[in-house]
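Quick start: what a row looks like.
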Amino acid sequence: PMMRWSLVCVVGIWLGMTATLAAVPSPHLQTSQPARLEFVRNMTLQAWNAYVDSAWGHDELRPLDHTARDWLELGTTILSSLDTLHIMGLHDAFEAARSWVKTDFNPADKD
């Protein structure tokens, strides 16, 4: 179940990024590796910020109407994003997510 949910998250983020990529002229994608890495990092941060603005603490963001959806009511996007945020060096976002886990994550409250 967790692997399936992780795939759902990746696909959701990818769909959000795909819409953004379609609007970006192709020369941006034909630049050096550091520039491409920075581009991906910025797109990840853009997707994360959309989640924070519209669905913080909920399981997922519905990107088309900017609403939250819960199916486990565990803040699963936050949980599954921790490693990505850390690896990508998005330290402020990582610390915010980590803080939420420490203060608000309580699976014992769920049935």
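That is the whole record. Strands lie at 60-62, 67-69. The CA atoms of residues 60 and 69 lie 5 Å apart.
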